[in-house]
Specification:
The structure is a single chain. This protein has five helices and ten strands. By secondary structure, it is an alpha+beta fold. The protein has two domains: 41 residues; 201 residues, Sulfite Oxidase, Chain A, domain 2 (Alpha-Beta Complex), CATH 3.90.420. The strands form two sheets. Strands 2-1-10-5-6 form a five-stranded mixed sheet. The protein binds ligand MTE and molybdenum atom. Molybdenum atom (MO) binds next to loops.
Length: 254
């Protein structure tokens, strides 16, 4: 070592720290670039070719967290019948236009592509009847306590030996003219308070409230309570949903 060159221990320490800092900085930059490269070159998902698999995972996790915010057991609050309003608000008439004959109506239940069951109203009325009084909430900001009756979705599916179809991720419903349509995640569809509903305030559903059969799904906002069900099908990908296509939340739970 050159004896003339006096080594200043403080300077040495500063140099060492500077080197470590630079090293750490480049390492992190490298790591960030590598992560980006991996994401960029990762496969896109079959659901949506624009979404790379790792991002899809984050979206799926968000969906699961959202759906996890209620369990099958968690019930919407119910009320005594006397609390229900007598004048029930009518909101939304998409898919309810034109002349419509409830007497010739049949539910088109698509068990699988090309395998559709036609079910009449008298058959549905013969199934066990369930009533519910709950606070119906519309995303427009109003709510009202209303009284409905029909067959529980799960009782209906069991009666037609369709319970195995609940392995699918979604159900899709549409009005007979396909003017209004919704997609429902399976846990909400088979939630114990979800009804295929044919009565309001103890009387058959009025035409503008979905006669002869509508969905009542208390864990969701009003947009999902499709009036005048025409077709009903099962799917593993999210079925088309009228308001989701306009930018509203697909799940619309509360
Ligand atoms: N066929 C059909 N169902 C529908 C709608 C609609 O426009 N068409 N509107 C939805 C909305 S936004 C709400 S708030 C509820 C209102 O139900 P009600 O008219 O029985 O109060 O129906 C839902 N179901
Ligand atoms: Mo609504």
């Amino acid at each position: 070592m050159n004896p003339n060159k006096v080594q200043d221990p403080l300077k040495q320490q500063v140099r060492k720290k500077t080197l470590i800092s630079f090293g750490a900085f480049f390492l992190l930059m490298g790591l960030a670039y590598w992560s980006w490269l991996r994401l960029y070159h990762s496969a896109t998902t079959s659901d949506d070719p624009a979404i790379h698999a790792p991002l899809r995972k984050v979206l799926d996790l968000n969906g699961q967290l959202f759906q996890g915010s209620f369990s099958e057991q968690k019930l919407a609050k119910t009320f005594p019948v006397r609390d229900a309003v007598k004048q029930v608000r009518v909101n939304g008439n998409l898919g309810l236009g034109g002349t419509f004959d409830t007497s010739t109506w049949k539910l088109h239940l698509v068990r699988a592509p090309g395998d559709t069951l036609l079910i009449g109203m008298d058959e549905i009325r013969r199934l066990p009847k369930t009533e519910i009084v709950f606070d119906f909430k519309c995303i427009e900001g109003w709510d009202q306590v209303t009284y409905w009756a029909g067959v529980k979705m799960m009782d209906f599916l069991k009666a037609y030996h369709l319970d195995s179809l609940t392995a699918h991720k979604y159900i899709g419903l549409a009005t007979p003219d396909n003017g209004y349509y919704v997609g429902i995640d399976m846990p909400s569809a088979i939630h114990p308070q979800t009804l295929l509903c044919y009565e309001m305030n103890g009387r058959p559903l009025p035409m503008n409230q979905g006669a002869p059969l509508r969905l009542i799904i208390p864990v969701k906002y009003g947009i999902k309570h499709l009036k005048r069900i025409g077709s009903f099908y099962f799917s593993d990908t999210p079925p088309r949903d009228y308001w989701a296509e306009q930018g509203y939340d697909y799940y619309s739970g509360h």
